[in-house]
Amino acid sequence: MATSLPPLTALRAFDAAARHMSFAKAAEELNVTPAALSFQIKSLEEHLGAPLFRRLNRAVELTDAGHALAPDAKAAFEMLTNGWRAAQRMQDHQSLTVTAGPAFTAKWLAPRLFQFAHEHPEIELRFSATLRAMDFARDDIDVAIRFGYGPDPGLYSLPLAEEWVTPVMLPEMAERYPTPESLREAVLIIDDSVAFLDPPADWEAWSEAMGIAPLVPTGPRFSQADHALDAVLAGTGVALGRRALVIKDLAEGRLVAPYGKVLSTGARFRFLCPEGAETRLQIEAFKNWMLREIDKTAHIAESFEMLERPIKK
Amino acid sequence: MATSLPPLTALRAFDAAARHMSFAKAAEELNVTPAALSFQIKSLEEHLGAPLFRRLNRAVELTDAGHALAPDAKAAFEMLTNGWRAAQRMQDHQSLTVTAGPAFTAKWLAPRLFQFAHEHPEIELRFSATLRAMDFARDDIDVAIRFGYGPDPGLYSLPLAEEWVTPVMLPEMAERYPTPESLREAVLIIDDSVAFLDPPADWEAWSEAMGIAPLVPTGPRFSQADHALDAVLAGTGVALGRRALVIKDLAEGRLVAPYGKVLSTGARFRFLCPEGAETRLQIEAFKNWMLREIDKTAHIAESFEMLERPIKK
DNA sequence: ACCTTCAGTTAAGTTATACTTAATCGAACA
DNA sequence: TGTTCGATTAAGTATAACTTAACTGAAGGT
Q1: Most buried residue, A243, A306, B184, B298, by most Cβ within 10 Å?
Q2: pLDDT tens sequence across B56-71
Q3: pLDDT digit string, tens, across residues B52-107
């Protein structure tokens, strides 16, 4: 059986026709006349030796052979489009699109952005603050920052600093709650965005690691960490803050972490991009800038003591 | 950014060149002159606005853009080839290639084959007795018979009769082992091909379901069920036989299942083919024939009593 | 029943693409 | 130093792809 491929333009015509289930619409998509498309399909059917469409009154439907071919054709042309877009994006060293969760965007990226823009005025930055699964090719994404455990198969993945949590509050609150025990009097804010962690990194886990009776949070709940931290900044209460999200506020005195003891989450933010793309100029620049920015606050992180997790029975 | 695809023949030329890492070999593969191929690559690079290959002394290597495009191009053209082959195979109603495991091939298909050939002399049958993962398009497989739990995503999947196991032996042995307890004196053959089942369907599980002390098999082990059953037929001992593999020997008196109690495995043989292919003439004929053949021995299977699995603590 | 519209087809002619041949280039290898 | 190998270029040709324009046949409206 001769397995060599038929003319590719005919296959593309078939793909469009099968997707639209209409020759006319397919012709429109490909910017050709219906006549040309009809001819292409006919030629493809001649190559195959069997019809691919059944011509009905004023519609077409796929034959068995057509059904066998259509899904693969669709997927194949989508893949070609994706690859082509990726290749096109490769030569663009001017723009950089980054996607990150809302918390990281608000608490890490946003406060430092002007710094990056200053260092690399030639790079046009775009942001997409969403947590939904990313498709680098489809959504024109260059870099993704994601929090969790990994691994990240098929991607270039650079784990950033390890994330821990520790109670953070306004400086003026610190004297009111001089000890961890005194937090029983405080409004303890709940950040549900870390609820997926296993082992957990919530108030109960932190107090257990501190060796005190469990702190039971009674304050408001937030589904996004940045909202929880905004509540802290507004003086509402005390929250468990993740390293990346609070370190700048700690460095600049807007928040304090008075107990000096932090609980590891095991999870990290990772810098993700398509494999091979990590060498593109603007991506490498962004990556190095992030690492330098993290380094700037490393001394603060190192001043904290990492708590041991008690062994669970 | 104009995302429309470049000329497809150029993309195919690029794919071949990227796979061979040589324009000359790519040209050979596509049955064109090196000049034509060189021109195609050049035109593709013009469309992209950047080189895809770096021309070295007497070799070529991919640029970043080329690296971004090559894997997708390769996968896409493989997919098109697969789809095209599937469409070609659709119109072939004469031949039928079936793959099944060695046990099913030896103990179910082989003894019944002449029957199918008799009913459908026009269909040319081919067999491939292997358990390795099948690729319908790549290996020209039409139908696969597989044992296990499913599901079978993306395939037409028809579960056949439920598989149970029960001790089988030569008729003349049955009087020597009149009760399940008496099997302690017998050579109990081990069939490792069902070791993957969960819950298990081995001697221990069967005796437990029978409510007797565990039977500990001491006989030979076989990795394939047909070899275990051949050992039974040779008078070596007693084995736990799967329904599909022993029912014909039971029906024709070569083996007996004297205790009349069978243990369900929860797993089944399934009739698998690419979605949509189940309506092809020869595939439907084969499917219906299998169902009829199974029906012929259904009365025997129904004469057995299904054991309850004891609830595990 | 009539005309109109719509979706696809067919035929003829044109344009653009893909290909070949043949000559050229440059580096590696003997 | 000449030879060979792999890629390139130029010129010319074949053919694939497309357009225009006329046609078919069924649906739908009045």
Answers
A1: A243
A2: 777 888 888 899 899 9
A3: 998 877 788 888 889 989 999 999 999 999 999 989 888 888 889 999 999 999 99
Q: How far is CA A242 from CA A62, A225, B241, in A?
A: 55, 8, 59
Task: Give the residue from A80, A11, A93 showing the smallest Cα distance to B4.
Answer: A80
Does residue A59 reach within 7 angstroms of strand D, measured from its CB? no
Fold entry, domain B162-265+295-306 = D-Maltodextrin-Binding Protein; domain 2 (3.40.190)
Q: What is the tens place of the pLDDT at every residue in A233-256?
A: 999 999 999 999 999 999 999 999
pLDDT-derived band at B313, boundaries 50, 70, 90? very low
**In 3-state terms, what secondary structure has residue B32?**
coil
| B1 chain-A contacts, CB cut-off 8 A | 85, 88-89, 140
- What are B206-263's pLDDT values in tens digits? 999 999 999 999 889 999 999 999 999 999 999 999 999 999 999 999 999 999 999 9
Class of the CATH domain delimited by B8-90: mainly alpha
Residues B225-256 as b or e (16 or more Cβ within 10 Å = b): bbbbbebbeeebbbbbbbbbbbbbbbeeeebb
- Beta strands (DSSP E) in B49-208 are 53-55, 60-62, 95-100, 124-129, 143-148, 155-168, 188-191
* CB atoms B87 and A68 under 8 Å: yes
The CATH number of the domain covering residues in A94-313: 3.40.190.290
Q: How far, in Å, CA of B160 to CA of B151, rounded?
A: 13
Architecture label for domain B95-160+270-292:
3-Layer(aba) Sandwich (3.40)
Please compute the mean of the pLDDT values over residues A210-214 and round it to a whole number: 92
Q: Strand, helix or coil at A229?
A: helix
**Rounded distance between C-alpha atoms, residue B137 and residue B127, angstroms:** 16
List own/partner pairs for A130-139 with CB under 8 A and 24 or more apart. Answer: A130/A99, A130/A101, A130/A102, A131/A101, A131/A102, A134/A99, A136/A86, A136/A273, A136/A274, A136/A277, A137/A82, A137/A83, A137/A85, A137/A86, A137/A274, A138/A82, A139/A99
What are the structural domain ranges in chain B?
A: 8-90, 95-160+270-292, 162-265+295-306
The answer to whether residue B298 neighbours chain A at the CB level (below 8 Å) is no
Q: Are strands B238-242 and B188-191 parallel, antiparallel or unpaired?
A: parallel
Which bases of chain D come closer than 7 Å to a protein CB?
A: 5-11, 16-22, 25-27
**Contact criterion met (CB < 8 Å) for A83 and B72:** yes
CA distance B255 to B185: 19
